[in-house]
């Protein structure tokens, strides 16, 4: 009985952390950027690459379009504002990783 409880606790701790809204936006935008060389980008292709349900993907895509990060003329397309968000997010993420290495790793030594 006790081993079953421990096993369930371990399964819960090994789950992936939930993505923040900003991480989801970043993920969608980076996939759109990767696919930008294609003539037509289908929403389903991006949704699958982002590993999201279609409902959640659609909701987030609408939000990105409202914020003018994604355009939807004939096909999905990342805007200049969307590319800027990718660049800024990458810089912030790199900075946070560096801070973690500089300060968190030093403390654990």
Q: What is the topological layout?
A:
Layout: H1 2-13, H2 21-34, H3 43-49, H4 54-66, E1 70-72, E2 76-78, H5 80-107
Helix pairs in contact: 2-5
Protein architecture, described:
It comes from Nitrosopumilus adriaticus. With 109 residues, the chain is mainly alpha-helical. The protein has one domain: Arc Repressor Mutant, subunit A (Orthogonal Bundle). It is 68% helix and 6% strand. A hairpin with a 3-residue loop joins β1 and β2. 14% of the residues are buried.
- CATH T-level topology: Arc Repressor Mutant, subunit A
Give the rounded overall mean pLDDT: 86
CATH homology-level superfamily: Winged helix-like DNA-binding domain superfamily/Winged helix DNA-binding domain
Structural class computed from helices and strand pairing? mainly alpha
Overall structural domain count: 1
Q: Which of globular, elongated, flat, extended, rod-shaped describes the shape?
A: globular
Low-confidence stretches: none
Strand order of the largest sheet: 1-2
* CATH class descriptor: Mainly Alpha
What fraction of the residues are assigned to beta strands by DSSP? 5-15%
Question: How many strands, what sense, and barrel or not for the largest sheet?
Answer: 2 strands, antiparallel
CATH architecture: Orthogonal Bundle
Q: What is the N-to-C succession of helices and strands? A: HHHHEEH
